[in-house]
Amino acid sequence: MPIQIQIEDKTKSLERLANQLSDKNLNKANVRAINKAIQKANTNYRRELVKNYNLKYAETKDMISPKRATYGQPEGIISGRTQPIGLSHFTPSFIKEGSVFSIKSVKDKETKKRSLSQRAKKASKKDTYTGVSFEIRKGQRKTLPFAFMIQSDKPGIMQQIWARGAYSGNTFTILKSRKPITALKTLSPFGGITTEDTQKTIEESAGADMQKEFERQVNLLLRQAGAK
Q: What pTM does this model have?
């Protein structure tokens, strides 16, 4: 998913300065500006995911990947992962035998890394829902009455949300009992960052960042050339 941004010579003085650079240095200024903009855009995309969805910033690290521009290929690209995110990332809760089991993202004090951890508490009178409750968007908790949680490979940890049924494209079809179970998933990072509002916001800020860095690089390379 490439970001469409371009350099615009908004002033005659910048155009005059850029024309004083060699083709090699002009390309260098362009590539450096692209990479600066791509770096900031990548951070902003991750912040948009955290702002709009119930995710921790650290969890988005592998969801969005920037590819830097090179002198041979002066184009920067940001790619969003198309694989859907499992429902286990969205603070699910499941009632079983009088207890409410929940999964939360917890940071290890020593390694500083986050992982999904199970918590259990006694069910209260208000915990009367059936199925699995989860919160994809902050403040908007939903319940899938046909879903359930089961043990994962790790002892004591319920990390996957399951239902009897199957996916056909992006649509999940509920099937009767004794049919195979399927791990439930939700939005993909690519879908989360390609909404119209997010794209417009990021492209505008990336364009401004690139323009500013291009001007800085032009002046820097001119000073370096004059010092030789």
A: 0.70
